[in-house]
Amino acid sequence: MASAAKFLREYKLVVVGGGGVGKSCLTIQLIQAHFVDEYDPTIEGASLKPVLSLSDSRLRGDQFGPRKFFRRKRHHFRASHQMELSIADNFLDSYRKQCNIDDETALLDVLDTAGQEEYSAMREQYMRTGEGFLLVYSITSRQSFEEITVFQQQILRVKDKDSFPMVVVGNKCDLEGEREVTRQEGEALARSFGCKFIETSAKSRLNVEKAFYDIVREIRRYNRELQGYSPGVNGGSSGPGGPSKPIDMDGEEREAGCCSKCVLM
User: Model-level pTM?
Assistant: First the structure.
Protein backbone atom coordinates (compact mmCIF):
# COMPACT_ATOMS: atom_id res chain seq x y z
CA MET A 1 0.00 0.00 0.00
CA ALA A 2 1.16 3.53 -0.73
CA SER A 3 0.74 4.56 2.90
CA ALA A 4 3.27 1.94 3.92
CA ALA A 5 5.71 2.72 1.12
CA LYS A 6 9.32 3.47 1.91
CA PHE A 7 11.04 6.26 0.05
CA LEU A 8 14.68 6.06 -0.94
CA ARG A 9 16.45 9.33 -1.70
CA GLU A 10 18.53 9.18 -4.87
CA TYR A 11 21.65 11.32 -5.21
CA LYS A 12 23.18 11.99 -8.60
CA LEU A 13 26.93 12.27 -8.03
CA VAL A 14 29.49 13.07 -10.71
CA VAL A 15 33.21 12.29 -10.49
CA VAL A 16 35.29 14.73 -12.55
CA GLY A 17 38.98 15.38 -13.03
CA GLY A 18 41.81 15.00 -15.51
CA GLY A 19 42.76 11.75 -17.20
CA GLY A 20 44.52 9.14 -15.09
CA VAL A 21 43.79 10.64 -11.67
CA GLY A 22 41.89 7.55 -10.49
CA LYS A 23 38.24 8.51 -10.95
CA SER A 24 37.24 5.02 -12.07
CA CYS A 25 39.33 3.39 -9.34
CA LEU A 26 37.64 5.47 -6.65
CA THR A 27 34.18 4.68 -7.99
CA ILE A 28 34.85 0.95 -8.32
CA GLN A 29 36.32 0.84 -4.81
CA LEU A 30 33.13 2.42 -3.48
CA ILE A 31 30.87 0.03 -5.36
CA GLN A 32 32.83 -3.21 -5.28
CA ALA A 33 35.66 -2.77 -2.75
CA HIS A 34 37.98 -3.72 -5.61
CA PHE A 35 41.10 -1.96 -6.94
CA VAL A 36 41.71 -1.94 -10.68
CA ASP A 37 45.49 -2.15 -10.98
CA GLU A 38 45.76 -1.03 -14.59
CA TYR A 39 44.79 2.17 -16.37
CA ASP A 40 41.75 1.83 -18.62
CA PRO A 41 40.68 5.28 -19.87
CA THR A 42 36.95 5.71 -19.44
CA ILE A 43 36.44 6.72 -23.08
CA GLU A 44 38.51 3.85 -24.51
CA GLY A 45 36.82 1.06 -26.44
CA ALA A 46 33.39 2.66 -26.48
CA SER A 47 30.68 0.76 -28.33
CA LEU A 48 26.93 1.28 -28.39
CA LYS A 49 25.24 -1.05 -25.89
CA PRO A 50 21.98 -0.86 -23.94
CA VAL A 51 22.07 -0.38 -20.20
CA LEU A 52 22.65 -3.72 -18.47
CA SER A 53 21.30 -4.25 -14.96
CA LEU A 54 23.25 -6.71 -12.83
CA SER A 55 21.05 -6.63 -9.76
CA ASP A 56 17.46 -5.93 -8.78
CA SER A 57 15.61 -5.25 -12.02
CA ARG A 58 13.59 -2.55 -10.28
CA LEU A 59 16.69 -0.37 -9.97
CA ARG A 60 16.87 1.02 -13.46
CA GLY A 61 20.23 2.14 -14.79
CA ASP A 62 18.90 4.62 -17.33
CA GLN A 63 17.53 7.21 -14.92
CA PHE A 64 20.52 9.56 -15.23
CA GLY A 65 20.45 11.63 -18.38
CA PRO A 66 20.46 10.54 -22.03
CA ARG A 67 21.42 6.91 -22.46
CA LYS A 68 23.59 7.78 -25.46
CA PHE A 69 26.15 9.40 -23.17
CA PHE A 70 26.97 6.15 -21.41
CA ARG A 71 29.67 3.83 -22.70
CA ARG A 72 30.70 0.22 -22.40
CA LYS A 73 33.40 -0.64 -19.85
CA ARG A 74 35.75 -3.59 -20.21
CA HIS A 75 35.69 -4.32 -16.49
CA HIS A 76 32.81 -6.45 -15.23
CA PHE A 77 32.01 -6.88 -11.57
CA ARG A 78 29.61 -8.91 -9.49
CA ALA A 79 26.75 -6.88 -8.09
CA SER A 80 24.98 -7.37 -4.77
CA HIS A 81 21.26 -6.95 -4.16
CA GLN A 82 21.95 -3.43 -2.89
CA MET A 83 23.59 -1.99 -5.96
CA GLU A 84 23.69 -2.01 -9.70
CA LEU A 85 26.43 -1.58 -12.27
CA SER A 86 25.10 0.01 -15.43
CA ILE A 87 27.26 -0.84 -18.42
CA ALA A 88 26.51 1.36 -21.38
CA ASP A 89 27.76 3.65 -24.09
CA ASN A 90 30.18 6.41 -24.96
CA PHE A 91 31.17 9.04 -22.42
CA LEU A 92 30.17 7.94 -18.92
CA ASP A 93 30.09 4.93 -16.66
CA SER A 94 27.11 4.85 -14.31
CA TYR A 95 27.22 2.91 -11.05
CA ARG A 96 24.53 2.63 -8.38
CA LYS A 97 24.75 1.67 -4.75
CA GLN A 98 22.39 1.75 -1.80
CA CYS A 99 24.00 2.75 1.48
CA ASN A 100 23.29 4.33 4.86
CA ILE A 101 24.67 7.80 5.52
CA ASP A 102 24.06 9.39 8.92
CA ASP A 103 21.19 6.98 9.66
CA GLU A 104 19.48 7.79 6.38
CA THR A 105 19.30 5.31 3.50
CA ALA A 106 20.47 6.70 0.18
CA LEU A 107 20.75 5.46 -3.38
CA LEU A 108 23.94 6.79 -4.93
CA ASP A 109 23.90 7.16 -8.71
CA VAL A 110 27.57 7.76 -9.49
CA LEU A 111 28.83 8.93 -12.87
CA ASP A 112 32.48 8.27 -13.68
CA THR A 113 33.44 10.62 -16.51
CA ALA A 114 36.14 10.84 -19.16
CA GLY A 115 38.86 13.30 -18.21
CA GLN A 116 40.49 13.74 -21.59
CA GLU A 117 40.55 17.32 -22.84
CA GLU A 118 39.11 16.38 -26.24
CA TYR A 119 35.82 15.56 -24.54
CA SER A 120 35.58 18.78 -22.54
CA ALA A 121 32.78 20.09 -24.77
CA MET A 122 30.58 17.20 -23.62
CA ARG A 123 30.97 17.98 -19.92
CA GLU A 124 28.03 20.35 -19.80
CA GLN A 125 25.71 17.45 -20.61
CA TYR A 126 26.30 15.75 -17.26
CA MET A 127 27.02 18.92 -15.32
CA ARG A 128 23.44 20.05 -15.89
CA THR A 129 21.97 17.06 -14.08
CA GLY A 130 24.57 16.37 -11.39
CA GLU A 131 23.59 17.20 -7.82
CA GLY A 132 27.08 17.01 -6.39
CA PHE A 133 30.60 16.76 -7.77
CA LEU A 134 33.84 15.13 -6.66
CA LEU A 135 36.72 17.19 -8.09
CA VAL A 136 39.52 14.64 -8.28
CA TYR A 137 43.21 15.23 -8.88
CA SER A 138 46.27 13.07 -8.30
CA ILE A 139 48.72 14.22 -5.64
CA THR A 140 51.44 12.93 -8.00
CA SER A 141 50.43 15.31 -10.81
CA ARG A 142 50.53 19.08 -10.47
CA GLN A 143 48.88 19.43 -13.85
CA SER A 144 45.82 17.49 -12.68
CA PHE A 145 45.69 19.73 -9.59
CA GLU A 146 45.73 22.87 -11.71
CA GLU A 147 42.94 21.47 -13.91
CA ILE A 148 40.56 21.28 -10.95
CA THR A 149 39.86 25.01 -11.11
CA VAL A 150 38.70 24.62 -14.72
CA PHE A 151 36.18 21.96 -13.70
CA GLN A 152 34.94 23.99 -10.73
CA GLN A 153 34.42 27.13 -12.80
CA GLN A 154 32.63 25.24 -15.56
CA ILE A 155 30.27 23.61 -13.08
CA LEU A 156 29.34 26.97 -11.57
CA ARG A 157 28.85 28.48 -15.02
CA VAL A 158 26.61 25.64 -16.20
CA LYS A 159 24.62 25.70 -12.95
CA ASP A 160 24.53 29.51 -12.98
CA LYS A 161 25.37 29.47 -9.27
CA ASP A 162 27.92 31.14 -7.05
CA SER A 163 28.35 27.88 -5.13
CA PHE A 164 27.31 24.25 -5.52
CA PRO A 165 27.94 20.98 -3.64
CA MET A 166 31.51 19.89 -4.37
CA VAL A 167 34.35 18.11 -2.60
CA VAL A 168 37.99 18.43 -3.64
CA VAL A 169 39.67 15.01 -3.61
CA GLY A 170 43.43 14.46 -3.70
CA ASN A 171 43.78 10.84 -4.81
CA LYS A 172 46.77 8.46 -4.75
CA CYS A 173 47.95 9.53 -1.30
CA ASP A 174 49.55 6.09 -0.96
CA LEU A 175 52.23 7.34 -3.40
CA GLU A 176 53.78 9.74 -0.91
CA GLY A 177 57.23 9.40 -2.47
CA GLU A 178 55.88 10.71 -5.78
CA ARG A 179 53.88 13.61 -4.31
CA GLU A 180 53.89 16.84 -6.31
CA VAL A 181 51.00 18.58 -4.55
CA THR A 182 51.10 19.14 -0.79
CA ARG A 183 48.11 18.55 1.42
CA GLN A 184 48.22 22.22 2.39
CA GLU A 185 47.82 23.23 -1.26
CA GLY A 186 44.80 20.99 -1.61
CA GLU A 187 43.24 22.40 1.54
CA ALA A 188 43.88 25.96 0.35
CA LEU A 189 42.24 25.28 -3.01
CA ALA A 190 39.18 23.77 -1.33
CA ARG A 191 38.91 26.78 0.98
CA SER A 192 39.00 29.09 -2.03
CA PHE A 193 36.09 27.10 -3.49
CA GLY A 194 34.25 27.09 -0.16
CA CYS A 195 34.08 23.30 -0.05
CA LYS A 196 35.51 20.31 1.79
CA PHE A 197 38.86 18.66 1.07
CA ILE A 198 39.96 15.08 1.51
CA GLU A 199 42.92 12.94 0.44
CA THR A 200 42.16 9.39 -0.67
CA SER A 201 43.82 6.22 -1.85
CA ALA A 202 41.77 4.11 -4.23
CA LYS A 203 44.40 1.40 -3.86
CA SER A 204 44.16 1.06 -0.08
CA ARG A 205 40.53 2.29 0.07
CA LEU A 206 41.57 5.07 2.45
CA ASN A 207 38.79 7.68 2.78
CA VAL A 208 37.00 6.40 -0.34
CA GLU A 209 33.60 6.03 1.33
CA LYS A 210 34.13 9.25 3.27
CA ALA A 211 34.68 11.22 0.05
CA PHE A 212 31.40 10.05 -1.47
CA TYR A 213 29.49 10.31 1.80
CA ASP A 214 30.80 13.85 2.33
CA ILE A 215 29.40 15.00 -1.01
CA VAL A 216 26.01 13.54 -0.06
CA ARG A 217 26.20 15.50 3.20
CA GLU A 218 27.05 18.63 1.22
CA ILE A 219 24.02 18.08 -1.02
CA ARG A 220 21.79 17.73 2.02
CA ARG A 221 23.23 20.88 3.59
CA TYR A 222 22.87 22.78 0.32
CA ASN A 223 19.24 21.72 0.00
CA ARG A 224 18.45 22.76 3.57
CA GLU A 225 19.94 26.19 2.96
CA LEU A 226 18.23 26.48 -0.43
CA GLN A 227 14.80 25.56 0.89
CA GLY A 228 15.12 27.26 4.24
CA TYR A 229 14.01 24.20 6.17
CA SER A 230 15.36 20.84 7.29
CA PRO A 231 14.11 17.85 5.25
CA GLY A 232 12.61 14.85 6.99
CA VAL A 233 14.21 11.47 7.34
CA ASN A 234 13.61 10.81 3.65
CA GLY A 235 15.64 13.84 2.56
CA GLY A 236 12.50 15.40 1.13
CA SER A 237 13.94 18.48 -0.50
CA SER A 238 13.56 19.31 -4.14
CA GLY A 239 17.31 19.23 -4.71
CA PRO A 240 19.61 21.53 -6.69
CA GLY A 241 17.86 20.56 -9.91
CA GLY A 242 14.49 21.92 -8.75
CA PRO A 243 11.19 20.35 -7.73
CA SER A 244 9.35 17.69 -9.69
CA LYS A 245 7.41 14.49 -9.01
CA PRO A 246 8.71 11.42 -7.19
CA ILE A 247 9.30 8.14 -8.98
CA ASP A 248 8.69 4.63 -7.81
CA MET A 249 10.93 1.64 -8.44
CA ASP A 250 9.30 1.09 -11.84
CA GLY A 251 9.93 4.68 -12.85
CA GLU A 252 6.31 5.82 -12.51
CA GLU A 253 5.49 9.30 -11.29
CA ARG A 254 3.55 9.64 -8.04
CA GLU A 255 1.46 12.45 -6.65
CA ALA A 256 2.53 11.65 -3.08
CA GLY A 257 4.19 14.31 -0.96
CA CYS A 258 7.84 13.51 -1.69
CA CYS A 259 10.66 14.89 -3.77
CA SER A 260 11.68 14.01 -7.32
CA LYS A 261 14.86 12.35 -6.07
CA CYS A 262 13.00 9.73 -4.04
CA VAL A 263 12.43 6.17 -5.16
CA LEU A 264 9.34 4.34 -3.90
CA MET A 265 10.20 0.89 -2.54
Answer: 0.71
132 DSSP assignment: E
Distances (CA, A) of 13 to 96, 139, 161, 255: 10, 22, 17, 26
What is the chain's mean pLDDT, rounded? 75
**Mean pLDDT in residue range 4-21:** 88
d(CA 257, CA 19): 42
- Give the pLDDT confidence score for residue 126 in this predicted structure: 86
Encoded amino acid at 228, one letter = G
Q: What pLDDT shows up at residue 240?
A: 56
Cβ(49)–Cβ(122) below 8 Å: no
Cα 11 to Cα 231: distance, rounded to the nearest angstrom: 14
Q: For 147-164, what is the mean pLDDT?
A: 97
Helix axes 142-159, 183-193, angle to 10 degrees: 10
What's the chain's length in residues? 265
User: Is the Cα torsion angle 101, 51, 125, 168 positive or negative in sign?
Assistant: positive
End-to-end CA distance of the chain: 11
Taking each helix axis as running N to C, give the angle between helix 23-32 and helix 208-227, from 0 to 180 degrees, rounded to the nearest 10: 90
Assigned superfamily of 2-264: P-loop containing nucleotide triphosphate hydrolases (3.40.50.300)
Strand partners, 128: none
Q: Higher confidence at residue 4 or residue 189?
A: 189
The tally of CA atoms less than 13 A away on the side-chain side of residue 104 is 19
